[in-house]
Design a protein that fits this description.
heterodimer; A: about 500 residues; mainly alpha; two-stranded antiparallel sheet; globular; B: about 500 residues; 21 helices; 2 strands; about 0% strand
Chain lengths: ~500, ~500
């Protein structure tokens, strides 16, 4: 079945949009409502697959939905990086929706309809980001994503949630309006367009320190990429229910950030322009610092979700680093890491949620010996962790490999060292949980002896994504080939 | 001479549109008093306002290509006779004023019925129409003294309208009195300025004035006139240190009046300021008065930060919105200060966008006030649950106030930042976005109160009248609509900016 690409793009956004409406209208019939959302999630994924089948890794014609002002258009197209992101987000939406059902019902959380409505709206925004054909469209959906996830972070409505949500919104809106918007208007003033174009749109139009300043406005303005020192929102957002952390703060929101970073690097500045001007060197060092510093902080956190949050900050900077290296391998490694990290991290977050549903425990020190009680969850966690660390035969090994090659290509051997040290740090903060869970026993804790895996809706999804990490190891080559056109020099 | 218009002996109705724009509400106002029936007052007011709106639309469609309509009152040719002059800049403002009025009136019917005693309602609509007429007159006239006359018509009726809030809260009386003093000082300053101009040139027709002061830019009288007019209008605009009348007036006036005034009165005053700055004194004069930069930029930026910061501190939603209005005036002033076409365009667009945004917000507050007794934040706790439709409209308008992409407010900010970058003033561009972060804070305080706080105990929720809900949502949706469809607003603003920058040549 072949669909007109423009129609398919619209459909991929309309389906989550319809899910928003059905969740709001059917607030009193939970089964029908959740069933429809699942249907929408599956249909969205099918539509994106259909685009993949029709378009492959070519870049399609831009179709303009409406023109706000001359030069400011709401326009969409399909290109490899965006398609990959759309596939990732819509595919994981299905898994997380099932998991979210188990979690929300298992924990007796309130306001399910609002929760799933906002969730679907976030997916709608992500589709808009993935298929945006220019920076204006991307920015529009970027802000929509921030606003739609705010109620999710504040979901519990207690003081801690309100405070966390305030930090979340403050940093994300603050950076995007305060810095990114300026960068976008500046770009528009200089280039007269905001279209994503191969090789960038700025080459030859600005020079000298301006390039580095503009890049800084983007790099810090894309707060969702959590580059230090604008990373505080990510741990703050961990007050949200775990399905939110899993999909949004391991996949959709943070990946929207680094995806934007990649888009800006490749299609606004252009890799060659970045490399020639040397404007991204400082960004490379900052990203390297972020990688190490966040890992060190992660080791000090006893709260499992906080530790995973800092781990995410560290891993996101890998992708920023890939852009900053301004080499083909770096970009490819960054692009690949979007997928690999998403699969690994969503597994880890869902495992954390699974532990919480079963035992209501959040601190790592309370989980000693729990592995024997919840073997599936802990094995899934182990696999996800190994993928994040970057060990074969798991997906995460390939993206780190490419990044290391990129660092060598760009003749920054010190960065190679940073990546190696970071992997060791990952081992140090991720594996103790598993080791203590399986090999130490805790006889004094009677409650722990009673605990067991929660419902299959809760442990099934992380098991599935853990399996995904293994599968990705064997298909990494395909993804890399798929992404090749974005760095091809023609 | 300004213009040599051929005198028609037999004019068709369509040629009389400029005077009809004013005459319809002006005649309808006393008509309401003469008929003296409460049930007829509202329909008459609404029909008059709607007619003005239609006429304003027709006028704008005639001049949007950049042409000018000159209408001689009573057939007396300017400069001796009074001339009404319609170009894109003021047709755009006419459309805004009459459009807001036509939407506020249905809202007013429901809200006035509850806020005012029956005995006061008939006169309320008569005064509303007078105020409306005054604002239209100020906008349409091409005669400097006539501006003063209409200004007083609108001001005097505004003082009474604000005082009507006393039926709910006696503090409306002092608020109105304060405004009366400040407004009168402003109007007096303005008329002194016009007097000086008359002294220097012997004419009151704006186009004629422009021609005659062209070689008198050094004259102390002309410069003094400029200063008086700017300060006088500055008071009406509520430029930051001259804003003291505004917060109380907006807080204690009846809700419908606040929505109407916030969206129109200060906007009309800004238009007059623009008209005098660019059409009477002309860009050439402004270039010769370099001190203008030193006055406009600092006050604009001061307003953006000081007023927005004060807005954050407020505990009463109406007051918060009032201070936010003062802050938003800063953006419009900034656009003027740039003295460029893109800057003026940003000002004109923001005038419109902020008008609809604030009208929506104040309408929403009015609904809350009717259903819970107060506009303090502690009265609004948890209203997101109990009044979902009103609160959702408030969120939409609030996002437009911040300037989130996809709303009308975003375009204003975009154009303004672009205009500053065009002149390489990037520190100012950063200040603009930094100050909109203050807007994020005060809007979010509202959203948290509405959605995350627990509702107060024992709060009875009444049904919101549809007559209030529809205008509120029309305004809120307009905030989104004009964030995407900019055909009308943008072309009108561009043509207005071109006309203004051309100085007196743009008036021909």
């Amino acid at each position: 079945m072949a669909m007109e690409t423009s129609f398919a793009i619209l459909l991929s956004m309309l389906l989550p949009g319809a899910a928003v409406l059905s969740n709001m209208l059917l607030r009193n019939s939970p089964d029908l409502r959740d069933g429809l959302t699942l249907g929408a999630a599956i249909a969205t994924f099918m539509v994106v697959l259909n685009i993949l089948a029709n378009v492959g890794n070519t870049t399609t014609e831009t179709f303009t939905f409406l023109t706000v002002m001359p030069g400011l258009e709401l326009a969409f197209n399909v290109e490899p990086l965006g398609l990959m992101f759309a596939l990732l987000a819509s595919g994981l939406w299905i898994v997380t929706h099932l998991y979210g059902l188990g979690y929300m019902r298992g924990n007796n959380e309130d306001n399910h309809a609002r929760f799933f409505a906002c969730f679907s709206f976030a997916i709608f925004s992500v589709m808009g980001i993935a298929f945006a054909a220019n920076m204006f469209t991307l920015f529009l959906f970027y802000e929509a994503l921030t606003l739609s996830t705010y109620p999710l972070v504040a979901h519990k409505g207690n003081m801690a949630a309100i405070k966390g949500a305030r930090t979340y919104l403050g940093i994300l809106i603050g950076t995007s309006i305060g810095l990114q918007l300026v960068a976008i208007i500046w770009t528009y003033a200089v280039a007269g367009t905001l279209d994503f174009a191969k090789g960038g749109i700025l080459q030859g139009l600005i020079a000298g320190p301006s390039v580095a300043i503009l890049l800084a406005l983007y790099a810090f303005g894309i707060g969702k990429a959590a580059l230090m020192p604008f990373h505080r929102w990510l741990p703050a957002a961990m007050v949200a229910p775990t399905p939110v952390s899993a999909l949004l703060h391991a996949v959709a929101v943070v990946k929207a950030g680094v995806f934007t970073m990649l888009k800006v690097g490749i299609y606004i500045f252009g890799i060659e322009f970045l490399a020639e001007s040397g404007a991204s060197t400082w960004l490379m060092w900052l990203a390297a610092f972020s990688i190490l510093a966040a890992s060190v902080i992660a080791m000090t956190k006893d709260n499992l979700k906080a530790r995973l949050a800092y781990s995410t900050i560290s891993q996101l900077s890998y992708i920023t680093l890939g852009v900053a290296l301004a080499s083909s391998m770096g970009i490819l490694g960054g692009g690949l890491h979007v997928v690999m990290h998403a699969m690994g991290k969503i597994t880890l977050f869902m495992c954390a949620g699974s532990i919480y549903v079963a035992t209501h425990r959040t601190e790592i020190s309370q989980m000693t010996g729990l592995g024997r009680r919840m073997p599936i969850t802990f094995i899934a966690f182990l696999i996800g962790a190994l993928s994040i660390i970057g060990l074969p035969p798991l997906g995460g090994s390939w993206s780190k490999w490419l990044l290391m090659v990129g660092a060598v290509d760009a003749e920054h051997l010190f960065i190679l060292g940073v990546l190696l040290v970071s992997s060791l740090l990952n081992v140090a903060y991720l594996l103790p949980l598993v080791a203590k869970g399986f090999f130490l026993s805790n006889d004094t804790d009677a409650e722990l002896a009673q605990s067991a895996e929660a419902s299959p809706l809760v442990w099934g999804p992380p098991a599935a994504t853990a399996f995904g990490c293994v599968v990705l190891f064997f298909y990494a080559g395909h993804i890399q080939d798929f992404l090749m056109p974005i760095v091809a020099t023609n | 001479m300004a213009s040599e218009t051929v005198h028609h002996t037999a004019m068709t109705l369509s040629e009389h549109l400029p005077i009809l724009e004013i005459l319809v509400p002006f005649v309808a106002a006393p008509l309401i008093v003469f008929i003296g029936r409460r049930d007829l007052a509202w329909p008459i007011a609404f029909i008059a306002s709607a007619a003005s709106f239609v006429i304003a639309g027709m006028l704008l469609s005639q001049v949007i290509d950049g042409s000018v309509i000159s209408y001689q009152l009573g057939g007396w040719a300017p400069p001796l006779g009074i001339e009404y002059r319609v170009d894109t800049a003021n047709a755009f403002v006419l459309l805004l004023v009459s459009g807001i009025s036509t939407l506020v009136l249905p809202y007013a019917k429901a809200s006035v019925a509850r806020e005012l005693p029956e005995s006061a309602q008939t006169l309320f609509y008569a005064l509303f129409l007078l105020c409306f007429t005054g604002l239209l007159g100020v906008t349409i006239t091409g005669d400097a003294f006539n501006v003063f006359v209409f200004l007083e018509i609108s001001s005097l009726s505004t003082y009474v309208l604000i005082a009507q809030g006393a039926h709910r809260d006696k503090r409306a009386l002092t608020a109105s009195y304060n405004y009366l003093i400040m407004g009168t000082i402003g109007a007096t300053f303005f008329v002194i300025g016009v007097g000086f101009l008359y002294m220097a040139t012997g004419t009151l027709n704006m186009a004629d004035l422009a021609d005659r002061i062209e070689n008198q830019y050094d004259s102390r009288t002309v410069r003094a006139a400029f200063a008086f007019i700017m300060v006088g209008m500055g008071l009406k605009v509520a430029i930051f240190p001259l804003h003291l009348w505004l917060p109380n007036a907006y807080t204690y006036a009846p809700s419908a009046i606040t929505s109407f005034l916030a969206a129109t009165a200060t906007k009309v005053a800004i238009y007059v300021m623009l008209r005098f700055l660019f059409s009477v004194f002309q860009p050439g004069f402004l270039a010769e008065v370099p001190t203008l930069d030193l006055i406009l930029y600092p006050f604009a930026i001061l307003a953006m930060f000081a007023a927005s910061y004060t807005a954050i501190l407020q505990r009463d939603l109406k007051r918060m919105l009032a201070y936010s209005s003062i802050g938003q005036v800063g953006y419009m002033l900034l656009g003027i200060a740039l003295l460029s076409e893109s800057g003026l365009m940003a000002t004109m667009i923001h005038l419109f966008n902020h008008g609809i945004t604030k009208a929506a917000l104040f309408m929403g507050v009015g609904v809350y006030v009717l259903n819970g007794g107060g506009s303090f934040y502690h009265n609004l706790r948890g209203r997101g649950k109990t009044m979902p439709w009103t609160s959702a409209a408030m969120v939409v308008a609030g996002l437009s106030l911040i300037g989130v992409p996809g709303t009308a407010g975003f375009l204003s900010k975009w154009l303004l930042v672009e205009a500053t970058l065009e002149q390489g003033l990037w520190p100012i561009a950063l200040l603009i976005v930094a100050s909109s972060l203050l807007a994020v804070i005060y809007v979010w305080k509202l959203i948290e109160t509405l959605y995350l706080a627990q509702p107060a105990e024992g709060l009875q929720d009444q049904n919101v009248p549809l007559m209030m809900m529809i205008p509120l949502w029309v305004m809120a949706l307009a905030c989104i609509y004009f964030g995407f469809d900019t055909d009308i607003t943008l072309s009108a603003a561009r043509s207005a900016a071109e006309g203004l920058l051309a100085g007196s040549a743009g008036m021909r």
